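As described in the Methods, two query proteins were run sequentially through the folding procedure within a single session, without resetting any intermediate state between them. The first query and its resulting structure tokens are shown here.
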Amino acid sequence: MYDVIIRGGKIVDGLGDTPYIGDIAISGGKITAVGPSVKGEAKRTIDAEGAMVTPGWVDVHTHYDGQVSWDDELAPSSHNGTTTVVMGNCGVGFAPVRPGKEQALIELMEGVEDIPGTALYEGIEWGKWESFGDYMDYIGSREYAIDVGAQIAHGAVRYYAMGERGRTNEDATPEEIDNIATLVEEAIDAGAVGFSTSRTIGHRSLWGEPVPGTFAADEELLEIARRMRKLGKGVIEAIPAGAVGELAMLGGERNAPEEELELLRRCSEESGRPVTFTLVETRDYYPDLWRHLLEKTHQANAAGAQLFPQVPSRIIGYLHGLSSYHAFMRAPTYMEKMAKLPIAERAKAMRDPEMKRIIMSEKAVPHEAPGSMEHVAGLFRQNADILYPMANPIDLEAGPESSIGHLAKAVNKEPLEYLYDYMVEGDGTQFASFSRANLPESLDVIGEMLTHPDTVTGLSDAGAHVTLICDATMPSTQLSYWSRDRKKGNTIPVEYLVHKQTARNAALYGFNDRGSLEVGKRADINVIDYQNLSVAPPVAHHDLPAGGTRLMQPITGYKATFCNGVMIRENDQDTGERPGRLVRS
């Protein structure tokens, strides 16, 4: 008598094998039988006829470091078929932390990852830990819908080891480097699944300072790498300088992308461990830089390195709307009279012709904090013409004819006025998306990146950028768009896409007990209504601590999701089960 049998689904096993129709049996949280026909009975049988059965997704780039304190569902990852997440990316995290020094880490996370400081201050159980080992024990005492792995972040380590000198990116002395490396070694030994660092000046605290570690000397990273070799476990995750462009408006990156890649190669060789790093298209240097970096990566790996460029599943865009950031949010009249009104009332009030005239005529007031994400309002104002209204279903291939600029010209309006009118239509819940790379050729780039043998998929930033970006849906988008919905280009075989975000990501972090539908593996499984899997436009939820807002995209198509053999989602609804636990290295 099995616990569960999933019968008659199309099995996509995560190993890249050809899909087939078959059954999967679960007992004691593990897969105990799989094949074209599993004989026997079960306490519960899932009819998967017409559905696709896959391993649960492994999302290696999330920021739930604070959310693990207040949310045992770990939404929206759990809504998207993800059964294991890795947090602590980008060099920002909340451990180790000295008592009374929490505010600096909050301001780092608020500036870099756009998580409201009030939510982090009120929602996190500060005082429950100081060392990273204490933090791991805290997470390990809790239960979640899905499994969680944690990385130790360079920013927190440097601030803990060096105080204000570390926070302001002064050079570490040899003694301080030894202390930093020891803290990382202790964290990995306690079960941290990796160490993360950010080296781009684009990652700044709330008050505009580059995150600790941005300018760390090579020797600091290499000594950390040597300690990881000593332990023989853990991953190095990095945001290289130049990853998102040259950033000339901030003074320019310190190193060129090729120099950064060479340093990461040395880190991999010194550590003997995998190094994964952000790779997206940027044209600040030259159009084919991404391809050149992939070629250099392939050569380094052939020579013994373990480099894994981490690439997205879709173009990353900023969301514009009344529920999030928008072009008019820093207008004095808006801030004084509109900002605190409920959304529907606000939209109605802003449709008044006189109110519209006043708000549109006012000069924006800069936010007092240089690193506040509210400065994106200026970006929206300057680029209103290349924002795209978000329809349902979302069109990832929307061309210039769908842009605000084109639509405004058709009705003889300026793009900024058209954007204003679009934003306040109806109940004011609609969004527009901004991306400088919203071009067909950029989707071709992503397709080539996804299918490159050295890449891994990630960059969902789940748990972060809660009112600006909704990329936690990347696993669902990767499956539905690239294998089913793509019109302006080639699709990718479903078995390849499933492998990319299950077994391959699990192997990167040494999660050898999951990621494939094989006997003896954990029963982390999705049953998906593949033909109807869909990702809708964002909806605002006011459910963060202190009443903070976050945007989440409704997902349809997950008939069932199992974590550790327990059904956590059924027909896109939370079951209330919490089998997820801390994963240690």
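Immediately afterward, the second query was submitted; its sequence and tokens are:
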Amino acid sequence: MNSASWQARITCGRETGSGFLVTERHVLTCAHVVARGGSGEVRVSFARGGESLPAKVVAHGGWDGRDTDPGDVAVLELDRSVPLEPAEFAAPADAYGDPPRRLVAYGFPKRYEEGTLAEYRATADQLIAGEWVQLEAWVAHGQPLAPGFSGAAVTLADTGRVVGMVSSAARDPGIRNGRMLPAHVMARYWPRLGELIPTPEYGRTEKERLRELVLARGPEFDGRPECSPERLYSDAVGPFGPPLPGRRFRSLWDAAWYLLSEVPDTGAVARFAARLADFTEDAPTRGALRAWPSRAYDRRPRPPVNPPGPPAAGTQPWSPILVEIAPSGSGDHQFLVEVSAYNGRHRRVVGSRALPADRVRGYALERIDEAYHELEPGARELIAFVLPRRWLNTDVAHWQRSADDDSPLGSFAPLVVMDLERRRSGGLQHKLLQKWQRLDGRSAAPLHRIGCGALGQDPVRLTIGLRRGADMVGFASPPRAQGTRRLFQASLNAAVPVMLWPRSGCRGEHRGGAHEDCTGAAFLDRLAAHLADLPPSELPSHIHELRETAYADDGPEPHWAYDLALLWEDPRCLPDPVGYLHSPVG
């Protein structure tokens, strides 16, 4: 204990307690030591007869007055630096052992102006109410933890390193136990403390950068459920990682520190930082988060969320970039846009934002480009748009890929659309899985044609009929006219895995039967010929090649597939289809 010059005596009004120096100007103590002193000045001294320095409370754990309330931590800032070496911290696990480790606290009870020592041991490493560790006297006749020990550093007797702080002292001399606030719990309430506590996998510089980046987040975080500490933690550890602790995180830093100090997967901390960058407006902060650290793109294999079906012979699984566009609940023209990337079976959200309709395209395209950073160099890319039903005919395949590239997005990569309502339906997702299990054993599927002459048929009968036998449906006209819309919805309700149609062209006006000049019938003829002998699981690639041909065609008339739309959905490629089941507003 020769280095105990950092042990401090705290006075506030008529209250006396203990504390300890952790930086050249900062002292830790209990919040109740300075709170119960009323409006009295807080003063700190480090040696008997030494100078008493004024201090102010600069951070508070949120303790609100009762002995059982959490957050009994106060950080004092001295009016000037002191020429003393601050306390050093031990690793959190060092306080416990078999046999027990001898722990020492240096406090200032009544009649001990110079201070006195108390020897204790931790009963176990189990936290009481997620906050405290119970202390028991080392010997029956030693100094009890009386008032005046509150805020004292609890140190290892053999090294003098700090493992916690006395937070509860008995007022009855006959009671010889107390409570310690472990150092790693105190770090929840004062982020800077996390840099001082040893953690096996992270250096002080790394932790300092993460703390600064977490605290530099913008006001856009406030009130957004997708930015909650619990959501970011769950995204970081993945579906098979450690569950949430039995308490709510009090802040984003609390979640980050829990990952640093409690979760052994180093990649989880990096994924947390990368996920945090998704919601950060400030460009330098966003870039710094994405760069911290190289482990952010840890590629260790993870168990699948849903068991994958067998890929087609000679192919590899898709690595989708998922673009979900859903009504935000705050108005007819406001949408929640979320872009995710699947690396193997692990999904990471690249960006998520509520936007007016006229900003959806630009934001989605920027995040799609960003999502490519998440894919392995040899990954088999697939851009999948999940759209509200009324948007399914949107020309997403024709969107200009970027501000510097005028080529259509559909020529850049395989691109498909999916129906938002169907993706949220557990029953329809189950039916889709059943259909794909049947399709896995087939090299091709026949095209069920819905031409202009079929627009008057009953949608319910169509749903039942398609559900029993159809796996691929082609429409002669886009789902704009009333008749086509009803049959289009019937096909979606039948859990048809593949649906194709022309975004423009025939308007479905030939209800009496086939006509020689019906462009829709000609479209279906060409489509059926092209799809013959093609496996449904490979259609995104084949349609991508067809689109490239159509976009490059310089004939006098548009290529028959120039406006081809493809709805293709295999739930095994895109696990976690629940999405936002409730409005994020309110």
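Residues 432 and 495 are 6 Å apart (CA to CA). We note this only descriptively and draw no conclusion about the first query from it.
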